[in-house]
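Two proteins, back to back. First:
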Amino acid sequence: MKHFFSRLSLFLASIFFTVCVMAETVSAKPKLVATFSVIGDLVQVIAGDKVELHVLVGPNSDGHVYQPTAADARAVSQADLLIANGLGFEVWLNALTKAAQFKGKQRILGAEVEPLMVDDPHGAAEIPDPHAWQDIQNVMLYVAAITAELIAFDPAHRQFYTENSEKYTEQLRALHKKIKQFTESLPAQKRKLVTSHDAFGYFGKAYGLEFIAPQGMSTDSEAKTQDVARLIQQIRADKIPALFMENMLDARLLTQISRETGVVIGGTLFSDALSEKHQAAPDYLSMMEHNLSVLQRSLQ
Protein backbone atom coordinates (compact mmCIF):
# COMPACT_ATOMS: atom_id res chain seq x y z
CA MET A 1 0.00 0.00 0.00
CA LYS A 2 2.88 2.34 0.84
CA HIS A 3 4.30 1.80 -2.65
CA PHE A 4 0.89 2.53 -4.14
CA PHE A 5 0.65 5.90 -2.38
CA SER A 6 4.22 6.70 -3.34
CA ARG A 7 3.44 6.01 -6.97
CA LEU A 8 0.18 8.00 -6.69
CA SER A 9 2.04 10.94 -5.17
CA LEU A 10 4.58 10.88 -7.97
CA PHE A 11 1.77 10.63 -10.55
CA LEU A 12 -0.12 13.58 -9.05
CA ALA A 13 3.09 15.57 -8.78
CA SER A 14 3.82 14.95 -12.46
CA ILE A 15 0.30 16.07 -13.40
CA PHE A 16 0.68 19.20 -11.27
CA PHE A 17 4.04 19.94 -12.92
CA THR A 18 2.54 19.46 -16.40
CA VAL A 19 -0.40 21.74 -15.61
CA CYS A 20 1.94 24.41 -14.26
CA VAL A 21 4.12 24.21 -17.36
CA MET A 22 1.05 24.41 -19.59
CA ALA A 23 -0.30 27.40 -17.67
CA GLU A 24 3.07 29.10 -17.87
CA THR A 25 3.20 28.40 -21.62
CA VAL A 26 -0.27 29.89 -22.15
CA SER A 27 0.47 32.96 -20.06
CA ALA A 28 3.77 33.41 -21.91
CA LYS A 29 1.90 34.39 -25.08
CA PRO A 30 2.13 38.14 -25.74
CA LYS A 31 -1.09 39.89 -24.78
CA LEU A 32 -2.20 42.25 -27.53
CA VAL A 33 -5.05 44.72 -27.81
CA ALA A 34 -6.22 46.07 -31.17
CA THR A 35 -8.47 49.10 -31.13
CA PHE A 36 -11.04 48.04 -33.76
CA SER A 37 -12.06 45.20 -36.04
CA VAL A 38 -9.98 46.05 -39.13
CA ILE A 39 -6.73 46.25 -37.19
CA GLY A 40 -7.73 43.21 -35.14
CA ASP A 41 -8.08 41.19 -38.33
CA LEU A 42 -4.65 42.26 -39.60
CA VAL A 43 -3.06 41.26 -36.30
CA GLN A 44 -4.88 37.91 -36.29
CA VAL A 45 -3.78 37.06 -39.83
CA ILE A 46 -0.11 37.60 -38.96
CA ALA A 47 -0.12 36.34 -35.36
CA GLY A 48 -2.43 33.35 -35.62
CA ASP A 49 -2.63 31.53 -32.29
CA LYS A 50 0.71 32.81 -31.03
CA VAL A 51 -0.82 35.73 -29.12
CA GLU A 52 -3.77 36.51 -26.88
CA LEU A 53 -5.74 39.16 -28.78
CA HIS A 54 -8.51 41.42 -27.51
CA VAL A 55 -10.30 43.72 -29.99
CA LEU A 56 -11.96 46.74 -28.44
CA VAL A 57 -14.45 47.87 -31.13
CA GLY A 58 -16.08 44.83 -32.67
CA PRO A 59 -17.89 44.10 -35.95
CA ASN A 60 -20.44 46.61 -37.30
CA SER A 61 -19.54 49.04 -34.51
CA ASP A 62 -18.57 52.69 -34.92
CA GLY A 63 -15.03 53.37 -33.69
CA HIS A 64 -15.53 57.13 -33.84
CA VAL A 65 -18.03 57.19 -30.97
CA TYR A 66 -17.21 53.96 -29.12
CA GLN A 67 -17.57 53.84 -25.34
CA PRO A 68 -15.08 51.40 -23.75
CA THR A 69 -16.31 48.81 -21.25
CA ALA A 70 -14.88 47.52 -17.99
CA ALA A 71 -13.70 44.42 -19.87
CA ASP A 72 -11.83 46.66 -22.30
CA ALA A 73 -10.11 48.45 -19.42
CA ARG A 74 -9.03 45.12 -17.90
CA ALA A 75 -7.65 43.92 -21.25
CA VAL A 76 -5.73 47.16 -21.77
CA SER A 77 -4.32 47.09 -18.24
CA GLN A 78 -2.87 43.61 -18.89
CA ALA A 79 -1.70 44.17 -22.47
CA ASP A 80 1.94 43.96 -23.51
CA LEU A 81 1.20 45.74 -26.78
CA LEU A 82 -1.62 48.04 -27.86
CA ILE A 83 -2.01 48.53 -31.61
CA ALA A 84 -4.04 51.54 -32.73
CA ASN A 85 -4.76 53.37 -35.95
CA GLY A 86 -4.23 56.87 -34.62
CA LEU A 87 -4.66 59.90 -36.90
CA GLY A 88 -7.51 61.04 -34.65
CA PHE A 89 -9.68 57.95 -35.16
CA GLU A 90 -9.82 56.57 -31.60
CA VAL A 91 -10.63 59.81 -29.76
CA TRP A 92 -11.47 57.81 -26.62
CA LEU A 93 -8.18 55.90 -26.44
CA ASN A 94 -6.07 58.24 -24.30
CA ALA A 95 -8.71 58.33 -21.57
CA LEU A 96 -8.94 54.53 -21.67
CA THR A 97 -5.20 53.89 -21.39
CA LYS A 98 -4.97 56.41 -18.53
CA ALA A 99 -7.90 54.88 -16.64
CA ALA A 100 -6.51 51.37 -17.21
CA GLN A 101 -3.00 52.43 -16.10
CA PHE A 102 -1.60 50.90 -19.27
CA LYS A 103 2.12 50.11 -18.91
CA GLY A 104 2.81 48.26 -22.15
CA LYS A 105 3.98 49.49 -25.55
CA GLN A 106 1.68 51.33 -27.93
CA ARG A 107 2.12 51.18 -31.72
CA ILE A 108 0.29 53.75 -33.85
CA LEU A 109 -0.04 52.33 -37.36
CA GLY A 110 -1.12 55.63 -38.88
CA ALA A 111 2.40 56.92 -38.28
CA GLU A 112 3.54 54.62 -41.11
CA VAL A 113 1.57 56.43 -43.82
CA GLU A 114 1.43 59.86 -45.42
CA PRO A 115 -1.93 61.15 -44.15
CA LEU A 116 -4.48 62.97 -46.25
CA MET A 117 -5.11 66.39 -44.73
CA VAL A 118 -8.68 67.70 -44.71
CA ASP A 119 -10.50 70.75 -43.35
CA ASP A 120 -11.43 70.54 -39.69
CA PRO A 121 -15.22 70.99 -39.47
CA HIS A 122 -14.76 72.54 -36.01
CA GLY A 123 -12.07 75.07 -36.92
CA ALA A 124 -9.76 76.55 -39.52
CA ALA A 125 -6.81 74.14 -39.26
CA GLU A 126 -6.41 71.02 -41.34
CA ILE A 127 -6.49 67.63 -39.65
CA PRO A 128 -5.50 64.14 -40.85
CA ASP A 129 -8.11 61.85 -42.37
CA PRO A 130 -7.87 58.71 -40.18
CA HIS A 131 -9.33 56.19 -42.68
CA ALA A 132 -5.95 55.18 -44.13
CA TRP A 133 -6.87 51.47 -44.37
CA GLN A 134 -9.13 52.27 -47.34
CA ASP A 135 -5.95 52.34 -49.47
CA ILE A 136 -4.54 48.81 -49.62
CA GLN A 137 -1.04 50.20 -50.10
CA ASN A 138 -1.31 51.69 -46.60
CA VAL A 139 -2.47 48.37 -45.18
CA MET A 140 0.69 46.76 -46.54
CA LEU A 141 2.61 49.28 -44.41
CA TYR A 142 0.39 48.45 -41.44
CA VAL A 143 1.13 44.74 -41.91
CA ALA A 144 4.89 45.37 -42.00
CA ALA A 145 4.68 47.37 -38.77
CA ILE A 146 2.57 44.72 -37.02
CA THR A 147 4.99 42.00 -38.12
CA ALA A 148 7.97 43.93 -36.76
CA GLU A 149 6.26 44.39 -33.39
CA LEU A 150 5.32 40.71 -33.14
CA ILE A 151 8.87 39.63 -33.91
CA ALA A 152 10.22 42.04 -31.29
CA PHE A 153 7.89 40.63 -28.61
CA ASP A 154 8.15 37.00 -29.68
CA PRO A 155 11.37 36.35 -31.66
CA ALA A 156 10.98 32.59 -31.24
CA HIS A 157 8.19 32.71 -33.84
CA ARG A 158 9.92 35.06 -36.25
CA GLN A 159 9.61 32.65 -39.20
CA PHE A 160 5.90 32.06 -38.52
CA TYR A 161 5.12 35.79 -38.47
CA THR A 162 7.34 36.52 -41.47
CA GLU A 163 5.79 33.82 -43.64
CA ASN A 164 2.25 34.90 -42.75
CA SER A 165 3.14 38.50 -43.46
CA GLU A 166 4.69 37.75 -46.85
CA LYS A 167 1.77 35.57 -47.95
CA TYR A 168 -0.78 38.15 -46.85
CA THR A 169 1.09 41.02 -48.49
CA GLU A 170 0.96 39.16 -51.81
CA GLN A 171 -2.81 38.81 -51.43
CA LEU A 172 -3.09 42.52 -50.67
CA ARG A 173 -0.95 43.45 -53.67
CA ALA A 174 -3.11 41.33 -56.00
CA LEU A 175 -6.33 42.88 -54.71
CA HIS A 176 -4.92 46.40 -55.04
CA LYS A 177 -4.12 45.69 -58.68
CA LYS A 178 -7.60 44.23 -59.26
CA ILE A 179 -9.34 47.33 -57.88
CA LYS A 180 -7.15 49.67 -59.95
CA GLN A 181 -7.89 47.75 -63.13
CA PHE A 182 -11.62 48.20 -62.53
CA THR A 183 -11.61 51.87 -61.56
CA GLU A 184 -9.29 52.81 -64.42
CA SER A 185 -11.83 51.32 -66.83
CA LEU A 186 -14.60 53.68 -65.65
CA PRO A 187 -15.56 56.74 -67.72
CA ALA A 188 -15.17 60.15 -66.07
CA GLN A 189 -18.93 60.57 -65.48
CA LYS A 190 -18.99 57.49 -63.24
CA ARG A 191 -16.09 58.47 -60.99
CA LYS A 192 -18.00 60.71 -58.55
CA LEU A 193 -20.02 58.93 -55.85
CA VAL A 194 -21.90 59.65 -52.61
CA THR A 195 -21.45 57.76 -49.31
CA SER A 196 -22.97 58.24 -45.87
CA HIS A 197 -19.90 59.82 -44.25
CA ASP A 198 -16.54 60.97 -45.54
CA ALA A 199 -14.56 57.75 -45.04
CA PHE A 200 -13.33 56.98 -48.56
CA GLY A 201 -10.81 59.75 -49.25
CA TYR A 202 -7.86 57.35 -49.33
CA PHE A 203 -9.78 54.93 -51.54
CA GLY A 204 -10.63 57.76 -53.90
CA LYS A 205 -7.06 59.01 -54.12
CA ALA A 206 -5.59 55.51 -54.61
CA TYR A 207 -8.13 54.36 -57.19
CA GLY A 208 -9.12 57.53 -59.03
CA LEU A 209 -12.62 58.13 -57.65
CA GLU A 210 -14.20 61.10 -55.86
CA PHE A 211 -16.43 60.46 -52.85
CA ILE A 212 -18.68 63.12 -51.35
CA ALA A 213 -20.82 62.75 -48.23
CA PRO A 214 -23.57 64.53 -46.30
CA GLN A 215 -21.79 63.73 -43.03
CA GLY A 216 -18.20 64.68 -42.31
CA MET A 217 -15.14 62.57 -41.66
CA SER A 218 -16.34 61.57 -38.19
CA THR A 219 -19.77 60.24 -37.29
CA ASP A 220 -19.87 62.08 -33.95
CA SER A 221 -22.09 64.87 -35.32
CA GLU A 222 -25.11 64.98 -37.59
CA ALA A 223 -25.10 66.37 -41.10
CA LYS A 224 -26.21 70.01 -41.30
CA THR A 225 -29.38 70.82 -43.22
CA GLN A 226 -27.63 73.30 -45.51
CA ASP A 227 -24.91 70.76 -46.32
CA VAL A 228 -27.51 68.16 -47.27
CA ALA A 229 -29.33 70.68 -49.49
CA ARG A 230 -26.05 71.63 -51.16
CA LEU A 231 -25.24 67.97 -51.74
CA ILE A 232 -28.62 67.33 -53.34
CA GLN A 233 -27.98 70.21 -55.75
CA GLN A 234 -24.54 68.82 -56.57
CA ILE A 235 -25.90 65.31 -57.21
CA ARG A 236 -28.40 66.73 -59.69
CA ALA A 237 -25.90 69.06 -61.38
CA ASP A 238 -23.12 66.47 -61.71
CA LYS A 239 -25.49 63.61 -62.58
CA ILE A 240 -23.88 61.43 -59.92
CA PRO A 241 -24.71 57.80 -60.81
CA ALA A 242 -25.14 56.14 -57.40
CA LEU A 243 -25.37 56.54 -53.64
CA PHE A 244 -23.87 54.04 -51.20
CA MET A 245 -24.86 53.25 -47.62
CA GLU A 246 -22.40 52.11 -44.94
CA ASN A 247 -22.77 49.06 -42.76
CA MET A 248 -22.53 50.82 -39.40
CA LEU A 249 -24.63 53.94 -40.10
CA ASP A 250 -28.34 54.73 -40.17
CA ALA A 251 -29.65 54.64 -43.74
CA ARG A 252 -32.46 57.20 -43.29
CA LEU A 253 -30.51 60.26 -44.48
CA LEU A 254 -29.23 58.57 -47.62
CA THR A 255 -32.69 57.19 -48.30
CA GLN A 256 -34.06 60.75 -48.12
CA ILE A 257 -31.38 61.99 -50.53
CA SER A 258 -32.15 59.13 -52.91
CA ARG A 259 -35.86 59.98 -52.82
CA GLU A 260 -35.25 63.68 -53.50
CA THR A 261 -32.73 63.17 -56.33
CA GLY A 262 -34.05 60.01 -57.95
CA VAL A 263 -30.56 58.48 -57.74
CA VAL A 264 -30.56 54.83 -56.71
CA ILE A 265 -28.79 53.43 -53.66
CA GLY A 266 -26.19 51.12 -55.19
CA GLY A 267 -25.60 48.98 -52.11
CA THR A 268 -23.77 48.94 -48.80
CA LEU A 269 -20.05 49.67 -48.46
CA PHE A 270 -17.92 48.78 -45.46
CA SER A 271 -15.86 51.69 -44.20
CA ASP A 272 -14.85 51.69 -40.53
CA ALA A 273 -15.81 48.21 -39.37
CA LEU A 274 -15.89 44.62 -40.52
CA SER A 275 -19.06 42.53 -40.41
CA GLU A 276 -19.96 39.55 -38.27
CA LYS A 277 -18.48 36.20 -39.38
CA HIS A 278 -21.63 35.07 -41.20
CA GLN A 279 -21.99 38.36 -43.12
CA ALA A 280 -20.33 39.80 -46.23
CA ALA A 281 -17.11 41.25 -44.78
CA PRO A 282 -15.78 39.27 -41.82
CA ASP A 283 -12.14 40.15 -42.64
CA TYR A 284 -10.25 42.94 -44.39
CA LEU A 285 -9.75 41.15 -47.72
CA SER A 286 -13.44 40.21 -47.84
CA MET A 287 -14.37 43.80 -46.99
CA MET A 288 -12.41 45.24 -49.90
CA GLU A 289 -13.61 42.50 -52.26
CA HIS A 290 -17.19 43.22 -51.22
CA ASN A 291 -16.79 46.96 -51.76
CA LEU A 292 -15.31 46.31 -55.19
CA SER A 293 -18.21 44.03 -56.17
CA VAL A 294 -20.76 46.64 -55.02
CA LEU A 295 -19.06 49.32 -57.12
CA GLN A 296 -18.87 46.99 -60.11
CA ARG A 297 -22.60 46.18 -59.97
CA SER A 298 -23.57 49.84 -59.70
CA LEU A 299 -21.13 51.50 -62.08
CA GLN A 300 -20.57 49.08 -64.97
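And the second protein:
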Amino acid sequence: MKKVGITQRQLPVTSTGEVRFALDERWSHVLWAYGILAVPLPNVPSLALSTAKELHLDGIILSGGGDLANYGGDCPNRDETERLLLSWAIEAKMPLLGVCRGMELIADTMGCSLVRTEGHVGAVNSIEGPLMTGSVTCYHDWAVNDLSASLVGLAWAGTVLEALATPDGRVLGVMWHPEREWPNNPSATELVRHHFGAA
Protein backbone atom coordinates (compact mmCIF):
# COMPACT_ATOMS: atom_id res chain seq x y z
CA MET A 1 0.00 0.00 0.00
CA LYS A 2 1.26 3.47 -0.90
CA LYS A 3 1.86 5.91 1.98
CA VAL A 4 1.05 9.55 1.26
CA GLY A 5 1.63 12.38 3.71
CA ILE A 6 -1.10 14.99 4.00
CA THR A 7 -0.90 18.42 5.59
CA GLN A 8 -3.58 19.74 7.93
CA ARG A 9 -5.50 22.84 8.91
CA GLN A 10 -4.47 24.59 12.11
CA LEU A 11 -7.28 25.38 14.53
CA PRO A 12 -7.40 28.43 16.84
CA VAL A 13 -5.37 28.04 20.03
CA THR A 14 -7.54 26.73 22.88
CA SER A 15 -8.05 28.42 26.24
CA THR A 16 -5.48 26.00 27.67
CA GLY A 17 -2.90 26.94 25.05
CA GLU A 18 -3.23 23.81 22.92
CA VAL A 19 -2.41 24.04 19.22
CA ARG A 20 -4.52 21.51 17.32
CA PHE A 21 -4.40 20.30 13.73
CA ALA A 22 -7.41 19.00 11.80
CA LEU A 23 -8.17 17.01 8.66
CA ASP A 24 -11.46 16.13 6.97
CA GLU A 25 -12.13 12.45 7.70
CA ARG A 26 -13.17 11.97 4.07
CA TRP A 27 -9.51 12.11 3.09
CA SER A 28 -8.82 8.85 4.94
CA HIS A 29 -11.78 7.17 3.23
CA VAL A 30 -11.03 8.25 -0.34
CA LEU A 31 -7.30 7.50 -0.04
CA TRP A 32 -7.95 4.07 1.51
CA ALA A 33 -10.40 3.28 -1.29
CA TYR A 34 -7.59 3.97 -3.77
CA GLY A 35 -5.06 1.83 -1.90
CA ILE A 36 -3.32 4.74 -0.15
CA LEU A 37 -2.59 5.08 3.55
CA ALA A 38 -3.03 8.71 4.68
CA VAL A 39 -0.25 9.96 6.97
CA PRO A 40 -1.23 13.27 8.63
CA LEU A 41 1.70 15.67 8.95
CA PRO A 42 2.06 18.39 11.61
CA ASN A 43 2.46 22.10 10.84
CA VAL A 44 6.00 21.97 12.20
CA PRO A 45 8.42 22.24 9.25
CA SER A 46 11.33 20.16 10.51
CA LEU A 47 9.11 17.52 12.11
CA ALA A 48 6.89 17.19 9.03
CA LEU A 49 9.92 16.71 6.77
CA SER A 50 11.59 14.27 9.18
CA THR A 51 8.37 12.24 9.38
CA ALA A 52 8.08 12.14 5.59
CA LYS A 53 11.67 10.95 5.22
CA GLU A 54 11.58 8.45 8.09
CA LEU A 55 8.40 6.80 6.75
CA HIS A 56 9.68 6.77 3.15
CA LEU A 57 6.47 8.35 1.91
CA ASP A 58 5.40 7.80 -1.69
CA GLY A 59 3.85 11.24 -2.12
CA ILE A 60 2.52 14.40 -0.50
CA ILE A 61 -0.88 16.11 -0.46
CA LEU A 62 -1.14 19.77 0.51
CA SER A 63 -4.74 19.88 1.77
CA GLY A 64 -7.19 22.77 1.57
CA GLY A 65 -8.60 25.23 4.08
CA GLY A 66 -7.63 28.82 4.87
CA ASP A 67 -5.56 31.47 3.11
CA LEU A 68 -1.81 31.80 2.67
CA ALA A 69 -0.18 34.11 5.22
CA ASN A 70 0.85 36.64 2.59
CA TYR A 71 -2.80 36.81 1.46
CA GLY A 72 -4.29 37.39 4.91
CA GLY A 73 -4.06 33.91 6.44
CA ASP A 74 -3.08 33.35 10.06
CA CYS A 75 -0.90 30.23 9.84
CA PRO A 76 2.59 31.11 8.55
CA ASN A 77 4.03 27.92 10.05
CA ARG A 78 1.71 25.89 7.82
CA ASP A 79 2.94 27.83 4.79
CA GLU A 80 6.53 27.20 5.83
CA THR A 81 5.83 23.49 6.34
CA GLU A 82 4.15 23.10 2.97
CA ARG A 83 6.81 25.07 1.08
CA LEU A 84 9.47 22.81 2.61
CA LEU A 85 7.53 19.67 1.64
CA LEU A 86 7.01 21.02 -1.89
CA SER A 87 10.72 21.67 -2.28
CA TRP A 88 11.57 18.20 -0.96
CA ALA A 89 9.03 16.50 -3.24
CA ILE A 90 10.44 18.29 -6.29
CA GLU A 91 14.00 17.38 -5.34
CA ALA A 92 13.02 13.75 -4.67
CA LYS A 93 10.99 13.57 -7.93
CA MET A 94 7.98 12.54 -5.86
CA PRO A 95 4.31 13.15 -6.78
CA LEU A 96 2.69 16.02 -4.90
CA LEU A 97 -0.96 17.10 -5.10
CA GLY A 98 -2.05 20.56 -3.95
CA VAL A 99 -5.77 20.94 -3.20
CA CYS A 100 -7.37 24.40 -3.26
CA ARG A 101 -5.12 26.23 -0.76
CA GLY A 102 -2.45 23.71 -1.72
CA MET A 103 -2.66 24.76 -5.37
CA GLU A 104 -2.47 28.39 -4.28
CA LEU A 105 0.69 27.62 -2.33
CA ILE A 106 2.24 25.85 -5.33
CA ALA A 107 1.43 28.80 -7.56
CA ASP A 108 2.66 31.39 -5.05
CA THR A 109 5.89 29.48 -4.39
CA MET A 110 6.59 29.08 -8.09
CA GLY A 111 6.27 32.73 -9.05
CA CYS A 112 2.55 33.33 -9.66
CA SER A 113 0.29 35.91 -8.04
CA LEU A 114 -3.25 35.46 -6.75
CA VAL A 115 -6.27 37.72 -7.17
CA ARG A 116 -9.70 37.76 -5.57
CA THR A 117 -12.41 36.01 -7.54
CA GLU A 118 -16.16 35.71 -7.09
CA GLY A 119 -18.64 32.92 -7.65
CA HIS A 120 -16.35 30.07 -6.60
CA VAL A 121 -17.35 29.49 -2.97
CA GLY A 122 -19.85 26.65 -2.70
CA ALA A 123 -20.54 26.97 -6.41
CA VAL A 124 -20.84 24.19 -8.97
CA ASN A 125 -18.55 25.10 -11.86
CA SER A 126 -18.07 23.52 -15.27
CA ILE A 127 -14.42 22.60 -15.76
CA GLU A 128 -12.73 22.11 -19.11
CA GLY A 129 -9.17 21.19 -19.99
CA PRO A 130 -6.78 18.30 -20.59
CA LEU A 131 -6.94 17.17 -16.95
CA MET A 132 -10.73 17.01 -16.70
CA THR A 133 -14.01 18.00 -18.28
CA GLY A 134 -17.05 18.00 -16.01
CA SER A 135 -18.58 19.73 -13.00
CA VAL A 136 -17.06 20.30 -9.57
CA THR A 137 -18.06 22.26 -6.50
CA CYS A 138 -15.44 24.87 -5.65
CA TYR A 139 -14.73 26.63 -2.35
CA HIS A 140 -12.14 29.29 -3.15
CA ASP A 141 -12.13 33.07 -3.33
CA TRP A 142 -8.60 33.40 -4.73
CA ALA A 143 -7.51 32.61 -8.29
CA VAL A 144 -4.14 32.34 -9.99
CA ASN A 145 -3.59 35.61 -11.81
CA ASP A 146 -0.78 34.52 -14.10
CA LEU A 147 1.21 31.38 -14.83
CA SER A 148 4.95 31.35 -14.43
CA ALA A 149 7.16 29.59 -16.95
CA SER A 150 7.54 26.69 -14.49
CA LEU A 151 3.83 25.76 -14.56
CA VAL A 152 1.24 24.78 -17.17
CA GLY A 153 -2.54 25.17 -17.02
CA LEU A 154 -4.66 22.00 -17.13
CA ALA A 155 -8.27 23.06 -16.49
CA TRP A 156 -10.40 26.21 -16.41
CA ALA A 157 -13.86 27.31 -15.29
CA GLY A 158 -14.43 30.07 -17.81
CA THR A 159 -11.35 32.26 -17.43
CA VAL A 160 -10.48 31.03 -13.91
CA LEU A 161 -7.64 28.52 -13.74
CA GLU A 162 -8.76 25.44 -11.79
CA ALA A 163 -5.79 23.08 -12.28
CA LEU A 164 -2.07 23.38 -13.01
CA ALA A 165 1.07 21.27 -12.97
CA THR A 166 4.79 21.37 -13.48
CA PRO A 167 5.81 20.35 -17.02
CA ASP A 168 6.82 16.86 -15.81
CA GLY A 169 3.41 16.42 -14.14
CA ARG A 170 4.81 15.38 -10.76
CA VAL A 171 3.47 18.49 -9.00
CA LEU A 172 -0.26 18.87 -9.62
CA GLY A 173 -2.68 21.43 -8.21
CA VAL A 174 -6.48 21.53 -8.37
CA MET A 175 -8.87 24.12 -6.94
CA TRP A 176 -11.65 21.67 -6.09
CA HIS A 177 -11.65 19.22 -3.18
CA PRO A 178 -11.50 15.57 -4.34
CA GLU A 179 -12.40 14.38 -0.83
CA ARG A 180 -15.68 16.34 -1.00
CA GLU A 181 -16.50 15.01 -4.49
CA TRP A 182 -15.93 11.35 -3.56
CA PRO A 183 -17.59 8.96 -4.23
CA ASN A 184 -20.32 10.67 -6.27
CA ASN A 185 -18.13 12.43 -8.83
CA PRO A 186 -15.46 9.94 -9.98
CA SER A 187 -14.06 12.22 -12.68
CA ALA A 188 -13.11 14.74 -9.98
CA THR A 189 -11.52 12.17 -7.66
CA GLU A 190 -9.85 9.59 -9.91
CA LEU A 191 -6.98 12.03 -10.46
CA VAL A 192 -5.84 11.18 -6.91
CA ARG A 193 -5.39 7.50 -7.76
CA HIS A 194 -3.77 8.26 -11.10
CA HIS A 195 -1.40 10.83 -9.68
CA PHE A 196 -0.03 8.55 -6.99
CA GLY A 197 -0.13 5.40 -9.09
CA ALA A 198 -2.26 3.61 -6.51
CA ALA A 199 -4.25 0.41 -6.91
